[in-house]
Input
Amino acid sequence: MSRVISGHYLDGDSAAVQEAQLLIDSGEELAVLGIAAPFRARLASVRFIAPVGNIPYRVKFENGAVFETRDRAAVSAALRAVGYRESSKIVQWAENHWPVALGSLLVTIILTVGFVQYGIPALADITARNIPKSVDQLLGQQSLELLDDLMFESSNLSAAQQATLIARFRAMTDNIGDGQHYRLQFRYSVLLGPNAVALPSGIIVMTDELVELAEHEDELLAVLAHEVGHVKERHALRQLLRSAGISALALAVLGDASSMASLVGFVPALLEAQHSREFEREADAFAKSWLKSHGIPSSRFDQILCRISHAADVLADEDYSYFSSHPPLAERAQCKP
Amino acid sequence: MNDTTTLAAQKQHLKFSFRATGAEYFRIWIVNLSLTILTLGIYSAWAKVRSLRYFYGNTVLDGSSFEYHASPLAILKGRLLVVGVYFAVVVASQFYPYISFILIPIILVGLPWVTMRARMFQTRMSSYRNVRFDFLGKYKESFTSLIGWGLLAVVTLYLLLPVWLWRRVKYNWGQAAYGRTPMHFTGPLKGFFKFFFKTLGLGLGMMAVVAAVFFAAKQTLVFGSIFSYPMIAAGAILGLCFLFLLLSYYQKSLFNEIFNHLQIGDARLQATFRTKKLAWIYISNFFGVILTFGLFYPWAMVRQLRYMVESLALTTEFGLNQFAAGEKRHTSATGEEVGDFFDVDVGV
Output
């Protein structure tokens, strides 16, 4: 068997190409022949750069010169024949075999779905449990100022009206004892309409429009309980951690494909909506259990929810459920026609 | 530089060719992607190097291929640094929403440095025939072209955006070198103004067409709403195709403008990018990737790169053997990773 391998010699001083032969004739040395100044080099001083796919096999010498050949099988065979062990190349072997590639595809699909559906939410929630409540305070510190700038105006409700609701709210939150500092505030907002917002710092903002829309005080308590549920379950922090986890995963998967990244950019948004719906369900569950334990019929919650939806005249939730931040109304409350 | 007495003049027209195949790249891509996920992203640096080695090694000119040299560890180090800074900023901005005001001056000063380092890394980690590419651009020029002309463009309501782009191309390509031979970018500013405003006109024209179709549909549709699903889907697909067409026109003009005016020693590049071909590749790739849930990605990538590589050619009087190597230098991967990560691909 001939151990002479033909290829190109590139001296590294200029872009000149010289036809050359590589001869691997012992376990100690190899020779580059066919060029103006043929030479020998010790195998130990040479780097064998294994190709990726069909690219040339490159043999790099100490002085920076390179011998390259497309006949990579010949190099491997010659090295094997003289008993020289190429460093193991598991990845290269895997890349060259279809069954392994298809197995990798399966692994990729299973791991991605698993991470996104279970791994990241679980990791994020464990992390959240180990983060002190003071962080929640920091998280929402400037949110109210920002919202006041963007969409809120001061409330037109009477002081008496506000005081009654605040007293009921205190009664609701005083016994939770989870270290959150719950406060209730009122604002007027054309943009939001009848609505309530929970900030991670424990501030809950209720709009004048919502107070006007309610037909019974218990309906407002139902909404407040829902918002308290958001704060108690730390949804803002958990959402932040989950988004960070998904960004990190997306970065890992798409990091090499920045040109394609924009294409799949909507996936995190999709998942964020999914998490948001999960959190809404948690908050609904908290509200309903609170109502039950205080002898208020859960129909109060249904009624106010139906009226808010009706007032907001939202697009039929069912049609857009994959993108929407709330579960479909039909799932959350039973509305009377 | 060129010793004309010893080098026989032999005008050569050399075409770039691309030998990668979708099937082969699929195996490389999926094996490395699964390893990346298994290692929670750590392996992504190795995956990147393998992909680039494969693509460079399959880009062939005059019988020789290009080579990518970056070490995965350098890239990993850069990535970890970038990820750390990124999350620090994200977390901090949750606590202090106004932190961006403090960050603006830091970014204005830092971005030219980052883009410069990224360009250095890209060029110096690439070689052809065992001669490395190089980048000789300085920070000062990076700052004036990127920030100085960038701000001027903003102040003039983007009328001077072509000047900014032209300056960036001059910096990124005109300051590059192959071995010891510097590259020269000789493209006139006029060309940039021309294609820039043509792109703008084309975009406005497309918007007019979309608006006309929209109103025509609204008039003729008596039954059912214009906001029905099929109408929205048809509108979105049409809009997307228009966007790709616009992008293709812009890229084709930019690439032709760059590569038809790039000289390396006596060698001149030629580019023959065409809007229709580019748009067809982008549109078919986009739908191919979407409809196969991403599985078509490797084929899409290879198709796109093949068209880009094979639209280039090079003419030289004295052949490619004349080029001498420069001194050997190293630069860290952080610069390039910062550029990649924040997706500020201003390097055109």
